Amino acid sequence: MKAKVYVTYKPGVLDPQGQTVCAFLKNRGEARVRDVRIGKLIEFDLEDMPSDHAAALLSRISDELLANPIIETFTVDVP
Amino acid sequence: MIFAVITFPGSNCDRDCLDAIGRVLGFQVRSVFHKERLLGECDAVVVPGGFSYGDYLRAGALAKLSPIMDDVRRFADQGGPVVGICNGFQILCEAGLLPGALIRNRSLRFVSRVVELRVENPRPPFANSYVADQIIRLPIAHGEGCYVADQRTLDELERSGRVILRYAGPIRPDAPDGNPNGSMRAIAGIVNETGNVFGLMPHPERACDPLLGNTDGAGVFLSIARARTEVPPAEPARG
Prior knowledge:
heterodimer; B: two-stranded antiparallel sheet
């Protein structure tokens, strides 16, 4: 089964990459863009299992490794 | 006095540390591979700079789970001095041995140059060879050295004298405040609550050999040795 984890900076953590892209877009005239934040998408191929098991597994892996709780949050996306 | 220097896959300042501590400063020093489970006999541990695991995922994120890190944690918990330099600082933060995190430089650029640092607190065992407010010059070379932590952590670090080094110059167009990477409160080096784990982004090991024209970094390693010998010997066991 396929599953995804999104890791993003917490609100308030400086994201110079996002700021640079945002400023670039505004300079190009994309006036309707207010802000850009850049995060990570991590794709998993898991053994088939119930969704809640997959969600628990990926939450544990995200807590331990994929996200740094000081600066990041994560969202688990299982089918 | 025996130093242990850890080598992770992708470490690239481990040899510099071995050379500076051993050949230049004359201490005993051992190399310890990250797959070892035990540090072996040592009085201080150096987690060196580089790009452990290619900095993949986040700088230091994978190295914190290397086998040797359990024994580094034990050594630190028992009060042994541990110093993390550059990537080593990132690893110690990721491992939870130091508070806060290091993120991408404000400029988004890799910054490699000599900076000026103010010794905020010359406390043992890492800075007792310096004096308060002394300005020292050390090289930095990092892309992810912007120190961040929540306000409460920052206040606590300041209040308890745990900010050891702060960026103090030079003033440049890309560092108008003398802060080369955007670190909160210009923090360049901190210690943990018990004072025996030190993380810093600058490279003291690159400023030890007089041949390189700058020996300001030697004080970090000399401080560790000095603090050890100045500690009164433990009371003999009774009964």
